[in-house]
Amino acid sequence: MSEKRILVTGAAGFLGSHLCDKLLSEGVSVLGVDNLCTGNPVNLAHLANEPRFAFEEADITRPFDFGKVDYVFNFASPASPVDYHRLGVETLLVGSAGTINTLEIAKKYDAGYLHASTSECYGDPEVHPQVETYWGNVNPVGPRSVYDEAKRFSEAAVTAYHRYYGVDTHLVRIFNTYGPRLQANDGRVISNFMMQALRGEPLTIYGDGMQTRSFCYVSDLVAGIVLLSKTHEHTPVNIGNPVEWTMLECAQEILAVTGSQSKIVFHPLPQDDPTRRRPDITKARNLLGWEPKVFLKEGLGLSLDYFKSFVK
Ligand code: NAD
Ligand code: UDP
């Protein structure tokens, strides 16, 4: 029997490229698709001589078909607030038309399907920690809505393709994830603080730094996603690290890991910036037997050489 062929959209991005590596390590063949709007071919350069990996540069907001696949992982979308503010309409389109186009592929080839959704579906949550049954608190016309509402539409579309067409769909709600290949200049908090600390520049905290996030190391996230893809769970599953950090604590942790003498400065908080974010991972624990293994200090240490490579 020929080996399974898996489609990964957003393959040249941070998470997509790690997912390609993980899938290839399991012996399948992988077709990566990406339009490189926020991704970087450097993330896939190590696969140049891998016979089980192929890459197509394509925009998934237009219908596409590169032949039969057994599974679709839909990871294409700008993800950092800086990127999706710059690419607002493109973000809405990839979450809507792009998601439908990838679902059509899964339907056509009777393939499994997993969509990269996000904790942003919970918006600025009134329920803490966030459990999958919470419907969220999203401003549909705020600056983050191009991303949040696109992802909420995607979840509806994915669910509809399961409900109406019987596609074997999966939805993962990813909480803030970091690690090597996180774009060094994409404005996310870990990349900003790491680069600022390594360059000896002030660390820029937005607001008073008391807002919280929960940071998952990329290998933990990808392991959870691959486990989820092998289930028949169709409703959303949170994957993230449940340890909650204020941005002030995060800045201090990064100063310690990098050994930097940088100062901390305070900048205005962006509009609609969620106040707190922590996943309830009971469902992932019970369904997948999954637990995060890498905690922030270790994960930052594992990412240090990557971020150092950008410092001249
Ligand atoms: P990323 O920007 O590094 O990767 C996204 C990739 O999608 C890029 O390579 C980009 O070029 C590609 N892309 C965007 N629009 C496309 C289009 N129209 N056609 C083809 N390719 C397109 O971001 P990431 O952090 O790797 O995020 C990957 C996925 O995971 C996204 O869907 C994101 O919403 C989701 N997610 C990420 C996080 C996180 O913390 N990293 C958290 C929640 C959800
Ligand atoms: N943030 C910060 N300084 C920065 C970048 C981000 O204080 O240089 C804050 C941001 O306001 C938010 C948190 O860090 O409260 C996480 O931001 P990020 O853009 O990484 O992700 P998201 O807001 O999408 O969770």
Structure characterization notes:
- The protein is of the alpha/beta class and 312 residues long.
- The chain has two domains: 5-176 and 218-241 and 282-288, NAD(P)-binding Rossmann-like Domain (Rossmann fold); 189-212 and 244-277 and 294-308, UDP-galactose 4-epimerase, domain 1.
- Helices cover 37% and strands 17% of the residues.
- It has nine helices and 13 strands.
- The chain has a seven-stranded parallel beta sheet, with helices on both faces. Strands 7-10 form a two-stranded parallel ribbon.
- The longest helix has 22 residues, at 88-109.
- The N and C termini lie far apart (50 Å).
- The model has no long low-confidence stretch (mean pLDDT 97).
- The protein binds nicotinamide-adenine-dinucleotide and uridine-5'-diphosphate.
What would the keywords be for this entry?
312 residues, alpha/beta, Rossmann fold, UDP-galactose 4-epimerase, domain 1, 7-stranded parallel beta sheet, two-stranded parallel ribbon, globular, binds nicotinamide-adenine-dinucleotide, binds uridine-5'-diphosphate, decarboxylase, transmembrane, NAD(P)-bd_dom_sf
